[in-house]
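Section 3.1: Structural characterization of target chains.
Under the original work plan, the team committed to producing a structural model for every single-chain target entering the pipeline before any wet-lab resources were allocated. The record below documents one such target. The sequence was received from the expression subgroup and is listed exactly as submitted; it comprises 287 residues.
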Amino acid sequence: MQLMAILSGIFANLAIGIVALRRKSLSYPSGFVAAALVGFSLFFASVYLWIALVLFFTTSSVLSKFKNKDEFKLRAMEFAEKGDQRDGIQVLANGGASLLFAWITMYLHGIFISDLTFPFVVGAFASLAASTADTWSTEMGTTSKQSPVLIYRPWVKVSSGTSGGVTLKGTVASFAGSLLIGGSAGISLFLLFGTNLGNVWSLFLIISILGFFGGIVDSLLGGLIQGLYHCPSCNKPTEKRFHPSCQTVATHIKGLEWINNDAVNFIASFFSGLIAIVLSYSLWPVQ
């Protein structure tokens, strides 16, 4: 039975990876290899974690294509460091924290864990929720006709795509994304052990709230410490060290040069997962 589960996991992950390559949602080889590493690890740690990962990846890939010819989104993508095709670093930035927690889960508990209240499983769910919240916020927020404002200085308007900039549309999308992963975890726990609704609601709330919180932390870090550059040729701010549209090396003007969007994504998702682990230990002590 376990052999069949392993073979099913290999087939399912490869099938999703091939579809993602064909849709240009992943780069090859780095994006494909990183996605396979995250996918296999979460599948073997818990099938329910893998389901949440698939929800994150498929919905994010669909949203990345949503209104991708929209003038507001095109303007934002020109500012952003990378496009909608995820490379290996981007995959690990969004899934690396959940990957780490999945490895710890397998080390401590073995493969195919069904106890979704195990702290490191909860941490992996919360990390995925934070990544989903941030990705949904970005993909939907960049299509907003409303000018973004800085999350830490809401009276200051900024250009679409600016790290730290938020819109109402993006904020609602962020909350919806975290609810998706929280709901996935809650429903999975209910299907496994539906007799204790208190645990189901607790798991749902922890993951949903910390996922949304992770999206907020991501925006704060993006606005406060992420490196920002200025292109002297076209006189525009950018997250890119090299501005490809005018073939110009940009000048660093703000933040830390070694902190880019990928680093911010990983820190925010890891922080959310870490808090979830601490809360889980207090709610469901490990015997």
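Residues 2-283 form one domain.
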